[in-house]
Structure formats: structure tokens, C-alpha cells
Write a structure and sequence with these properties.
- It is a single chain.
- The chain is mostly helical.
- It has two domains: about 100 residues, DNA polymerase, domain 1, CATH 1.10.150; about 170 residues, Orthogonal Bundle (hpI Integrase, Chain A), CATH 1.10.443.10.
- The chain has 14 helices and three strands.
- The protein has a three-stranded antiparallel beta sheet.
- Helix 7 packs antiparallel against helix 9.
- The longest helix is centred in the first third of the chain and has 21 residues.
- It is elongated and about 85 Å long.
- The protein starts with 6 loop residues before the first helix and ends with a helix.
């Protein structure tokens, strides 16, 4: 009855049952029809994923939702309408111990489960969302690293092809996502205005801008290309196919290894751009627009203000 009663009604029912059933022996017989449970759960999950697809979620996001929720349902082995808050808490607790994952990952799981059960509640399949009582996981804020000027110059020096150098410069000056980088076509680049059109999450379109250095290296790279592939960045060897996300990540890591720099990945360029922009006084709303964030809170998580600037601001306004 937990799905049909509020907390006060549940307590009254529990007290009444204890009074009425005092002195009786109650025996529970196994009666779970696992086949029906599995079929029902698959049905509900398919409906939920379909709704997410209609909302415009990417195939990668939908697949992540599917795998995460499937693991929960397989482990709990109950019909979704019978799953309780305690079931989900116990699953999260055991999963954290077994997988040794961070608080951030646990909170991501909680958010996905909340989205699923909230949808079930909105569609009237359940009375109330059992995840509602599980609060956001508290976690300490970690200051993530950004590239220094010296490290960026070392990365530039480690490039031995025009493709790698132009790709590196584009990441530095625009801060675009690696998925946006690999989807760029030559026709998306406007050299006259020094801008390019990218398609971000949820198929949202935005304009990003690059500097003169990037323009020069991009033009040199495209001039030496002999293929007809419309992609902006392609593999170095025939048949010159569009460069994929894994290819970019692998190449960037190799450049970092060659330069002797730790933790070099495409996303770090994005964080570096956001942090530098805010340090130099760019309004946070403009940074949000450049990065293609819907929520400004997301932008603030990317940008860590330089501690020296904080100290100078304290001297100027407070000390």
C-alpha cells in the first residue's frame, strides 16, 4: 500500500494491522511469477525510452538510460510498481560497495532512477515516485585542472602534422565538445567571419568563434588535403574517413604523452576556455552561450576562477 498512501496514512495502517493481527502467525508463500514481472518491466522501460526519444535525447543518452535501469530491475527482481524506496537505497548502497564508484556516479544513477519513476508517476502507472525520498548525494567540490600557457605551447610543439595542429587550435580557441568537433564539415566553417556552425546536445545549433592562428592552420591543413570527404577532419591514411571521437581522444592523449603533460583530453580544453574567459571578465551569460549550455549552473561547474584573481578582487573590494 506504500504506493497508495501518504506517510501519515501508512503509519496509521501499520499500527492498525499490528493491533488486529496480534497473536496470529503469518506465513508467506513464494508466489512471484518472474516471467510476468520481466515482461511488465520490459514493457514499462520501452515506453519510458520511447518518451525520451520523442523529447529529443540522443541515442547515446537513451542507451545509457536503458543499461542503467535494466541493471536495477534485474537486481531487484520486482515489478516496477512494487519497487520501494528501501529497494533502491539498498541497490545503490551495494552497487557503490561492489563497484567502488564515486559519489558523483551514484548521484547520476539516482537521477536516472528518479527520471524513470517520475515518468511512471506522471503516467499514472504508480501512485508516487519511490526515489523522491532519496536526496541528492552530497559530494565535495573538486577543483579540476586546466591547461597553463606553457602546457598549450608544449602541446603545439608536439604536433607533427597540420591536421593535429589545426585540430588542437580549434579546441583551444572554441572549447567545443569532441562530439561537435568530429561532426564538423568543411562547409560549416566561415573563414571570413572566423566562425563555424556546430550541432550540440539535443541537436541544438550554435555559432562558435576561432582566432586568427586557428584560421591560418586550418587553411593550411585543408589546402594540403587531396580527398573529397566533406568532413573537416579525416584520418591521415586512405581512404581518408571522417575522424571519430575515439580517434581524436587517442591522438590528443598521444600529443600529451609526447609533451610530458598529464591528463590531456579534449574536454580539458573546454574547461580551460571557460575558466580563462571568466578570469578575463567575460560575462557568465556569454560563456554559457559559447559553450552551448542550457543551464547556467552547468557553466559555473566548468569554470574555476583563478585563485590569484580572487585574491586581487579581495584586495580591491574588501581589504
Amino acid at each position: 500500500m506504500k504506493h497508495h498512501l501518504n506517510n501519515q496514512q501508512e503509519r496509521i495502517l501499520l499500527k492498525t494491522l499490528k493491533t488486529c493481527l496480534a497473536g496470529y502467525n503469518i506465513i508467506e508463500y513464494p508466489k512471484i511469477d518472474t516471467c510476468n514481472v520481466k515482461e511488465d518491466n520490459v514493457h514499462f522501460l520501452k515506453l519510458f525510452l520511447s518518451s525520451k526519444e520523442v523529447e529529443g535525447c540522443s541515442p547515446k543518452t537513451i542507451n545509457y538510460y536503458k543499461n542503467t535501469i535494466e541493471r536495477l530491475l534485474v537486481n531487484i527482481r520486482k515489478n516496477v510498481i512494487d519497487i520501494t524506496t528501501d529497494d533502491i537505497r539498498e541497490y545503490l548502497f551495494k552497487y557503490k560497495l561492489e563497484q567502488k564508484i564515486s559519489k558523483t556516479t551514484i548521484d547520476n544513477l539516482r537521477r536516472i532512477f528518479s527520471s524513470f519513476f517520475s515518468w511512471l508517476e506522471e503516467e499514472d502507472y504508480i501512485i508516487k515516485n519511490p526515489v523522491r525520498r532519496i536526496h541528492k548525494v552530497k559530494r565535495g567540490r573538486v577543483v579540476k585542472e586546466t591547461f597553463t600557457d606553457e602546457e598549450l605551447e608544449m602541446l603545439r610543439d608536439s604536433c607533427n602534422t597540420k591536421r593535429d595542429l589545426s585540430m588542437l587550435e580549434l579546441l583551444i580557441s572554441t572549447g567545443i565538445r569532441v562530439g561537435e568537433l568530429v561532426n564538423l564539415n568543411k562547409k560549416d566553417v566561415n573563414f571570413y567571419e572566423r566562425e563555424c556552425k556546430v550541432f550540440g546536445k539535443g541537436e541544438s545549433e550554435r555559432i562558435v568563434y576561432f582566432d586568427a592562428r586557428t584560421k591560418i592552420h586550418l587553411k593550411q591543413y585543408l589546402t594540403e588535403r587531396t580527398d573529397n570527404n566533406p568532413a573537416l577532419f579525416v584520418t591521415l591514411k586512405k581512404p581518408y574517413e571522417r575522424l571519430g571521437i575515439t580517434g581524436v581522444e587517442t591522438r590528443i592523449k598521444k600529443l600529451g604523452d609526447k609533451a610530458g603533460i598529464r591528463k590531456v583530453h579534449p574536454h580539458k580544453f573546454r574547461r580551460t576556455l571557460a575558466t580563462r574567459a571568466i578570469d578575463k571578465g567575460m560575462p557568465i551569460e556569454h560563456v554559457q552561450k559559447l559553450l552551448g549550455h542550457i543551464q547556467i549552473d552547468t557553466t559555473m561547474q566548468y569554470a574555476m576562477v583563478n585563485q590569484i584573481n580572487v585574491k586581487n578582487a579581495h584586495k580591491r573590494y574588501i581589504a
